[in-house]
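USER:
Before I trust my own judgement here, I would like a peer's view. Write it directly below this note and I will take it from there.

ASSISTANT:
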Amino acid sequence: MRAHFDDQEIVELTLICSMWNLSNRFAEALRLVVEPPGKRITFQPADLGEGPAVG
């Protein structure tokens, strides 16, 4: 890697990869629903503060 990146860039790449790994493990542990590619999760009006809470 040193042929292409200096020490600071290697540290930054390591940090980014580590944070990505952390977020994946965190989401997996909480069993979060992943958005399908190209689509967004549809929120209920109550989630957006636009209506009565459900349940």
In short: The radius of gyration is 19 Å. The mean pLDDT is 83. The CA atoms of residues 23 and 29 lie 10 Å apart. The chain has one domain: 7-48.
